[in-house]
Amino acid sequence: MLSLNDFQSLLAGYARRHPFPDDPPMLYEPCTYMLSLRSKRLRPVLTLMACELFIDEVERALPAAWAVELFHNFTLIHDDIMDAAPLRRGQPTVHTRWNVNTGILSGDVMLIFAYKHLLKVHNDRIAVQLVNIFNRVAIQVCEGQQRDLDFEQRDEVSLSEYLYMIEQKTAVLLGGALEMGACCAGASAVDGMHLYYFGLQAGTAFQIQDDWLDAYGDPERVGKQVGGDILQNKKTFLTLKTLELADEADRAALREWLRTPADTPGKVEAVRALFDRYDISAHVAEAKAKLQRSAYEHLDAVKVPLDRQTLLRQTVEQLLERDH
Amino acid sequence: MLSLNDFQSLLAGYARRHPFPDDPPMLYEPCTYMLSLRSKRLRPVLTLMACELFIDEVERALPAAWAVELFHNFTLIHDDIMDAAPLRRGQPTVHTRWNVNTGILSGDVMLIFAYKHLLKVHNDRIAVQLVNIFNRVAIQVCEGQQRDLDFEQRDEVSLSEYLYMIEQKTAVLLGGALEMGACCAGASAVDGMHLYYFGLQAGTAFQIQDDWLDAYGDPERVGKQVGGDILQNKKTFLTLKTLELADEADRAALREWLRTPADTPGKVEAVRALFDRYDISAHVAEAKAKLQRSAYEHLDAVKVPLDRQTLLRQTVEQLLERDH
Question: Residue A91: helix, strand or coil by DSSP?
C-alpha cells in the first residue's frame, strides 16, 4: 500500500511529464503558475486512493486524477474572478497577476486540458464512463457556484438550500474524484456509486465543519482570521441554522448584525453569543455526525477487503477531525 | 439528399428536444438566450453535411453537430467579454444583458454541455474519437483567441503570424466540424483528415475575403459600416500584406494612419489608397484562390461519389463567392 506522500509524488511526476505547452505564453503561463501554488492536492489523491481500493496499479488512475486537479484549478481561476479575490494560497490570483481576460481564457483552456487527460485512459469504455462522470460533476459544480452567487443577492436562504449549494459547489467534486478512481480500476458501477456518496457526504460534513471552524476555531491553527465569515456577513450553516431556531427577537437581532459593516465593534462576539444561545455547536456536531455515519455506510458497502481501505479512511477521518 | 433548410430544421428539432435545465435560472437563461439569437448555424450544418457524404442517417451526427454549435456559442460569450462587445447578432451580449460573472459561468457550463452532447453517440469508439477531435480543435481556438489578444498589444505582427492566428481562431472549428461529421458516419481517419483540411483552408480563405469585404464591400450588402476594421486600426490581411509590400515611406504612412483615432477625417479613403497602390485586391484574390485550390484538392481526395458532395460544395462555394 502506498502512503499519502507516495500519491503526491506520483502526481508531481505526472505533472512534470505533462507540462502545458510554451506557446502562446500568455495563455499557458497562468495555467502553470496556478498549478505551481502550494496545495495538498486532496482531490486527485482521492482518485488514486479510490483506484487502489481495487487494484495495485494506481498509475492507471493518474490521468483521471490529474484531470480532477485541472478541473479544480479551472474553477478556482474563474471563481476568483467572480469573487474579485486578490489572493489564492497566499499568492496573487491569476486575474490579479495578469488580468481578467487572461483569467477567463486560461481557465477555459485548463478545463479543455482536463478532458484531454481523461482520454489518456487506454480503454474506450472506461474513457466514456470517465467523461460521463466528469460532465455530471462539472455541471453540478457550475450550478453550485451560481447558487452561491445568487445567495449573496438574496435576503432569505433556507438551510436546506444552503446545504444543496455546498453539496454541488464542493462536495460533488470529492465524490466524483473517488468515483472516477474506482472507474479507472474497472470497479462496478455500484461500487463507484457508493464511493461517490461517501465523498459527497464526507465533503458536506467537511464544509459544515469549515463553517464552524471559521467562527470557533483557534485562529493560529486554522490559519486565518477568526470570524471572517461573520465579518463579511456570509450565509453559513451557523447563521442559517440559528435563524431557523431563534425566536423572533433574536432572529431580528442576528439579521441586523449581518447587515453591519465588517468593522462594527463587537460584531464577532455578539453574533457568536447568538449562536451560543441556540447551542449551535451541538447542532453542527449533530449534522456532521449524521453525514459521517451515512458516508461510512456507503464506504462499508464497497466490496473490497478492509485492509485496502485503511489509508482512505484515515485520510478522510483526519480531514473531519479538525476540532481546533 | 437533404437541403440546407432540412439541416437547419433537424438542428432546431434537436435543440427543442434538448433544452437547458430551468434551474438555476441565472445560469441557464443566458445559455438559452444566446442560442435563440438568429444564426444560420453554419458550423453544425457542416457537421451534418459531412456525415451525409458517407451515410443517409444524418441524425447520427446531430449530437456532435449540436456540441459544435454549443462550443461556438461558448466562445462567443467569453470572447464578447474579452472584447467588451455590447452587441452580438444585433442583440445585447450576455455580459451586457446580465453581467460579466454570469457570462463567465454560463459560458463555462455551455462548454461542459457540449461534451455532454458528444457522448450521446451510442458507440464508445466513436465517442472517444469525437472527444479527441473536439479537444484538439477547442485548444487551438483558445490559442487563436490568445494570439488575437496578444496582437492588439504588439506593434509588429507578420502576415504569417496573422494567418496562423485566424486559422486557429476560426478556420480550425470549421475543419473540426466537418471531421466530426465524418467521424459520426464511421468514415476512415484519412477521409476525416481530408475534410478537416478542406474546412481549414476554405475557412482561412473565407476570413481573408471577410477582411477584404470590410474595406471594399458594398456596405448595404455586407450589412455593416464599410472600413470598420480600418477605423479601429485592426490588423488584417490587407494591412499586413501592404506593410510587407510597401516602400519605406508608404509603410510609415500606413503605420501612422493606423495610430489615428476612428474619427480622423479621410482615414478610410487614405488607407484604401495605400492598399490600392500595392494592388492589394489582387493579392487577396491570389491568396484566396490558392487556399481554395488546396481546399478542393482535399475534398476531391475524399472517397465518396461526386453526387453526394453537391450540397457541401455549393454551400462552401457560396460562402466564398461573396464579392460584393
Answer: strand
- Measured at the CA of A231, the angle between CA A154 and CA A38, to 5 degrees, comes to 100
Give CA–CA dist A72/A74, Å, rounded: 5
Burial of B225: CB neighbours in 10 Å, binned 0-12, 13-18, 19+: exposed
Tell me the Ramachandran region of residue A230: left when phi exceeds 0, alpha when psi lies from -120 to 50, beta otherwise: alpha
Alpha-carbon span A275 to A261, nearest angstrom: 19
Assign A92 to helix, strand or coil. strand
Residue pLDDT, tens place only, B242-257: 999 999 999 999 999 9
In this prediction, residue A176 carries a pLDDT of 98
Contact flag B135-A150 (C-beta cutoff 8 Å) = no
- d(CA A234, CA A249) in angstroms, rounded, equals 20
**Nearest CA to CA, how far is B84 from chain A (Å)?**
10
Radius of gyration of chain B (CA): 20
Which 3 state secondary structure label does DSSP give A86? Answer: coil
pLDDT at B220 (0 to 100): 73
A30 chain-B contacts, CB cut-off 8 A? none
Q: Which of A131, A105, A129 is nearest to A118 (CA)?
A: A131
Mean pLDDT (chain B) is 95
CA-CA distance, B129 to A131, in Å (whole number)? 13
pTM score over 0.90: yes
What would the DSSP string read from start to end of A197-222? HHHHHHHHHHHHHHHHHHHHS-HHHH
Question: Chain A: nearest CA to B300, how far in angstroms?
Answer: 32
Cell numbers 494570439 correspond to what residue?
Answer: B147
- Is there a cis peptide before residue B24, judged by omega within 30 degrees of 0? yes
Q: How far apart are CA B68 and CA B75, in angstroms?
A: 11
Where do the domains of chain A lie, and which CATH numbers do they carry? 7-185 (1.10.600.10), 188-324 (1.10.600.10)
Around Cβ B152, how many Cβ atoms within 10 Å? 11
Q: Are B137 and B169 in contact (CB under 8 A)?
A: no
Give me the residues paired with residue A310 across strands.
Answer: none
Give residue-wise pLDDT tens across range B117-174: 999 998 999 999 999 999 999 999 999 999 999 999 998 999 999 999 999 999 999 9
What nine digits make up the cell of A80? 476568483
The per-residue pLDDT for range A112-165, each reduced to its tens digit, is 999 999 999 989 999 999 999 999 999 999 999 999 999 999 989 999 999 999
- Cell 459560458 belongs to B107
What pLDDT shows up at residue B223? 63
Chain A residues touching B131 at Cβ < 8 A: 115, 119, 127, 131
Burial (CB < 10 A; 0-12, 13-18, 19+), residue B296, is middle
Question: In B, which residues are within 8 Å of A115 by CB distance?
Answer: 115, 131, 134-135
Q: Residue B109 — φ and ψ, nearest 5°?
A: -70, -30
Residue B290's alpha-carbon distances to A46, A87, B194, B297, B314, in angstroms, are 54, 51, 17, 11, 19
A169: phi then psi, degrees, rounded to nearest 5: -70, -35
Q: How far apart are CA B163 and CA B279, in angstroms?
A: 19
Tens digits of per-residue pLDDT, A50-73?
A: 999 999 999 999 999 999 999 999
User: Does the N-terminal peptide bond of residue B21 adopt cis geometry, omega within 30 degrees of 0?
Assistant: no
Query: Mutation test of the interface with chain B: which of A115, A123, A172, A173, choosing the one with the most B Cβ atoms within 10 A?
Result: A115
The answer to whether the Cβ–Cβ distance between A143 and B100 falls below 8 Å is no
